[in-house]
Amino acid sequence: MGGNKNKGGNKKSGGGGGPGVIQKTGKPGNNARESDDRREKLRRRLQMRLNERRVDDNNPETILNLALSYANSGKIADACETFKKVSDELIEPYRERFACLLLDNEEADIAREQIEKSNPQNIMTQTANTFTLALIEYIAFHRLNESSMEDAIIALKKAHAVNSFVMELLLWQDFDELLGNDDLLRKLPDSEKMTKEEAALAYCICWGQLEIWSDAEAHDFILRHLWGENIPKLEEPTSQLLSKTWNRCRQKLMSSLEDDELEEMEEEDLDDMEIESELEEEDPEYRELQENIEKEKKSEEDDEMGDVEVEGKEN
After folding, report:
1. Mutual orientation of helices 60-72 and 95-104 as an angle, nearest 10°?
2. Is the N or C terminus of the chain more exposed, i.e. has fewer CB atoms within 10 Å?
3. Phi and psi torsions of 56, nearest 5°
4. 152: domain CATH number?
5. What is the pLDDT of residues 262-296, one digit of tens each?
6. Which residues neighbour 96 within 8 Å (Cβ) at sequence distance 6 or greater?
7. pLDDT digits over 13-52, tens only?
8. Could you tell me if residue 102 is inside a domain?
9. What radius of gyration do the chain's Cα atoms show?
10. How many domains is the chain partitioned into structurally?
11. Whole-prediction pTM
């Protein structure tokens, strides 16, 4: 099983609420996209400052608005501290978002508490809920020795059953065309209207979780327990926004996997030839075995020729 599997270097900005700004140069329309990105960042920053001025400890909704502004502006620690002041009733629709921010802020225990309290209502929150718990279980097993491998595997497979598209984004650099496409990220629908693949992209980039999974060094764990030795059956994308690009990324992936498979086979053949050459030079028993095989082949060929001559004479 080959393939370009090193996802460790594929870190995308986006710990806040909006997509990270990916620098693009030398392409038509680049200046316009960068201008749009700057406008969006300035708009979010201005909204955050306005909400800071409006916050009122006696008005819970102003606290929630400020927490969301901090999250959208990438101020993770400030967002976490502000969300902690929000009542359970108001925070309910945002628990998964809060849990993701807490993981980014290295507060896994509180993140687990939020996940256990949550009641996800759509594919976006269901995706974030199950994959956040899977990541918490993996970190608890892999780094802290506070969980078992079995629990980590069960949580990961449960999350995969909810949204299998996340696996592809976490594993393969061939999906960078999606992960770094700010135009597509800006066009994602509201969470209530998302398809599975749209929710997967929003979870990984807009909510900043691709980088958290990468930092947790979970790539090989995901590869082993979800992808396996052979290419698994992959769910077909249905999003009008993403399907074309998603399928193009898949085709690129399959091509790279085939190339790597051939390369591995060629390397194995070369290794066998080198070992065989060494054995012929250094191992008398190996040479004797080869000679015996050649003798038997020649004997079989002679027998076959004899049978042909006998048949010719009889005819």
Report:
1. 50
2. C
3. -140, 120
4. 1.25.40
5. 555 545 545 555 666 666 667 777 677 777 777 77
6. 114, 115, 118, 120, 124, 125, 128, 129, 132
7. 333 444 333 333 344 456 666 677 788 888 889 999 999 9
8. yes
9. 28
10. 1
11. 0.73
